[in-house]
Write a structure and sequence with these properties.
The protein has five helices and six strands, in the order H-H-E-H-E-H-E-H-E-E-E. A four-stranded mixed beta sheet has the order 2-5-3-4. A two-stranded antiparallel ribbon has the order 1-6. About 2% of the residues have low confidence.
Length: 255
């Protein structure tokens, strides 16, 4: 009997807990319903206000039309036009087109150059010569190693790298040996390695630098024309320096 009483007490407590939860849910639902009713009442009041304003606007429009019908035709047309102009946005006047100013064509120049790593490679590519000799020898192992390396560097840049072949000579050698050495390296690069001759320049430095019997390849930095204004008769020609065949004189087309 005691056990049954305990079970009944627990069941009662559980039922009371569920009843309390149900009452709480009911209270929450009633509060939500009250809020919804309040919102609905607000919307209905706004709707009534809008309908009243609409009715007043229609009545005012009818009064205006009635007054217009009683007045002169000119005034009627004028009043209708004024109402229509008040209802429709005014078209903005077209802005007067100003003549376009001719924009000058900019001149674009670029300084050609090389990366530091390429300059470092070329600094290690000095072509050695024997004393009082300005010929590239097939049996010279040092020249056979360095000359192909210079040619590879030139070809890797696909026409974007130009070299100045600086020839040097030691004290006591015949004057002009320096430029002859530069010419010998130039001929080997063009005729044997197949480098473009337009990418190579020659310079004799004598013995003042103290480098001895050597030809040093130096990358050239120059001002390169990219784009700019042209005369009408030159539109179909690329920019550059123009020479007559077998002549060192500049043609008029250059300017």
């Amino acid at each position: 009997l005691s056990a049954e009483l305990t079970d009944a007490t627990a069941a009662k407590a559980q039922a009371e807990s569920k009843e309390a939860e149900a009452e709480a849910d009911l209270a929450e639902a009633e509060a939500l319903l009250a809020r919804l009713r309040e919102a609905l009442a607000t919307q209905e009041a706004m709707l009534e206000k809008l309908e009243a304003e609409k009715g007043a606007a229609e009545k005012a429009l009818q009064d205006i039309r009635r007054l217009d019908s009683l007045g002169t035709p000119g005034k009627s047309v004028q009043s209708v036009q004024s109402v229509e102009s008040a209802q429709s946005p005014k078209a903005s006047p077209k802005a007067k087109e100003m003549p376009k100013e001719k924009v000058p064509v900019p001149i674009e120049l670029e300084v050609s150059g090389t990366l530091a790593v390429v300059e470092q490679k070329l600094a290690q590519c000095g072509v050695p010569f024997r004393r009082a000799d300005a010929q590239v020898l097939e049996g010279d192992p040092r020249q056979a190693l360095i000359l192909p390396r210079i040619a590879d560097i030139v070809k890797e840049h696909r026409g974007k790298l130009k070299l100045l072949l600086e020839g040097h000579q030691a004290e006591g050698e015949e004057p002009g040996t320096d430029i002859e050495r530069s010419l010998a390296v130039y001929q080997w690069l063009v005729e044997v390695a197949g480098c473009a001759p337009g990418l190579l320049r020659l310079k004799g430095c004598g013995s003042t630098a103290g480098l001895g019997q050597l030809v040093v390849p130096v990358p050239i930095q120059e001002l390169v024309f990219r784009s700019g204004p042209k005369a009408a008769e030159m539109e179909n020609f690329p920019s550059g320096l123009y020479f007559a065949k077998d002549s060192i004189e500049l043609l008029p087309e250059t300017t």
